[in-house]
Design brief:
It is a single chain. The protein is built from one helix and ten strands. The chain is mostly beta strands and about 130 residues long. It has one domain (about 5-110): Beta Complex (Metal Binding Protein, Guanine Nucleotide Exchange Factor, Chain A). The longest helix has 7 residues, at about 30-35. The chain binds zinc ion (2 copies). One zinc ion (ZN) binds next to α1.
């Protein structure tokens, strides 16, 4: 399986010829804030297999262990696309073109998970958008 994906407006796209090394649900506060949603789903691939087309902007931060990561997004439409580490890239799963085959492997920072991160039973369901 080769991975391809893009932002909402299409100005930025990417490919990786790696299989996903892991598919991780992350409930940390930073992921919640940057995605604007309950959690992030990150698909890890080696940086050497990752090819970017188009220009991103990034927000860089350094953790307690001195490891710097860059959260990159499309400056045109604002889609958060991936986080780049020195050796690996965590693709945001929702930006993949074909994510149906992904096999989630782990869930981290579960102690920070918000109660609404699980979709409750009994909601009114609409197979297409509803109001
Ligand atoms: Zn875009
Ligand atoms: Zn996180």
């Amino acid at each position: 399986m080769s991975l391809t994906g893009r932002c909402l407006c299409g100005a930025v796209s990417y490919t990786s010829d790696s299989e996903p090394l892991s598919v991780t649900y992350c409930h940390c506060d930073d992921c919640r804030r940057v995605t604007g949603s309950a959690f992030n789903v990150g698909v890890r691939v080696p940086a050497s297999t990752f090819q970017l087309s188009g220009k991103t902007k990034g927000y860089e931060s350094t953790n307690d262990q001195g490891i710097t990561k860059n959260r990159e997004f499309c400056p045109e439409c604002g889609s958060q696309l991936f986080t780049r580490y020195p050796d690996m890239v965590f693709i945001k799963a929702g930006t993949l073109d074909n994510s149906e085959d992904l096999q989630p492997t782990r869930e981290i920072w579960t102690e920070m998970a918000v109660s609404w991160s699980k979709i409750p039973d009994g909601l009114h369901k609409f197979s297409r958008g509803g109001t």
